[in-house]
Amino acid sequence: xxxxxxxxxxxxxxxxxxxxxxxxxxxxxxxxxxxxxxxxxxxxxxxxxxxxxxxxxxxxxxxxxxxxxxxxxxxxxxxxxxxxxxxxxxxxxxxxxxxxxxxxxxxxxxxxxxxxxxxxxxxxxxxxxxxxxxxxxxxxxxxxxxxxxxxxxxxxxxxxxxxxxxxxxxxxxxxxxxxxxxxxxxxxxxxxxxxxxxxxxxxxxxxxxxxxxxxxxxxxxxxxxxxxxxxxxxxxxxxxxxxxxxxxxxxxxxxxxxxxxxxxxxxxxxxxxxxxxxxxxxxxxxxxxxxxxxxxxxxxxxxxxxxxxxxxxxxxxxxxxxxxxxxxxxxxxxxxxxxxxxxxxxxxxxxxxxxxxxxxxxx
Length: 363
Known about the structure:
Blueprint: H1 7-28, E1 38-41, E2 44-47, E3 62-66, H2 73-88, E4 92-95, H3 107-115, E5 120-123, H4 132-140, E6 144-148, E7 159-162, H5 166-180, E8 185-191, H6 197-210, E9 218-225, H7 230-243, E10 247-252, H8 255-266, E11 275-278, H9 282-290, E12 296-299, H10 302-317, E13 328-330, E14 336-338, E15 344-346, E16 351-354
Parallel strand pairs: 3-4, 3-5, 5-6, 6-7, 7-15, 8-9, 8-10, 10-11
Antiparallel strand pairs: 1-2, 12-16, 13-14
């Protein structure tokens, strides 16, 4: 289920997350449940222990956030949301991770966290399978694994905290680009890495959405990959416009890609001529909305996503939930959430940002 209300905690954490994002951009130039016998469930191996929804959250839980890459502004904001939650339930927070979002780059970090006896590992998987062996070894050692933003294969984790339904994310991006190009023309997708679970799911669903009769005059010509690196995404945008001179619009379902594409368009002859939308943070995109490069884009609050992931991990480690469908837990200021099929918890629907509302948000 979706949370009842968010404004109070957003205001409380906005300054922290904004400062973290700004600092990163400047620096870059840019006693838990014991597992017994395992049984197979919707979200992978489950503990045979029964959930106790009235159990208190255990104090002193060690919670580690392992993002796709540590120099990514989006994950800096998400991880600061996780830090805020861990501080609320008196846990011990740490952040570790690779500087590049390659498929196997997270494995050594998972292994180290497992050796350190970490209670909760919250990670956004760069590849659904590459990290599986390490995650399951960590679970066997007693860690509770929560994926967020980008899932691992379900058998490798306890819960997946999803930003929104994949269908909703795909639909809103197709709706936005269709509106901005008048319902007709060539479009391209600028993605992150070729193996990113969330990106590939959204792209597949966008392709299904584009196959509907109402989008018959829109042609998806290609999918490019910027590897969630600013400079490569910038170069890929340039390459798309050279390769497809009739391109009417670009959809970038990744915050790094969207900002890089906007930066390229804003200083080129294509500003105002080629539409751009996707998933981005208001603080990254504000200047490009103001100068007319981007009309509108969408996202959820990444700080909320990290905050929810931390509380989900704490609920698992404290025995409030096991990850079975239908269980509920309270995620601090976000309110009550329910575990869905396959161990998935959904944050809520995405928000569309444009010139009318973007200044109401600070993250």
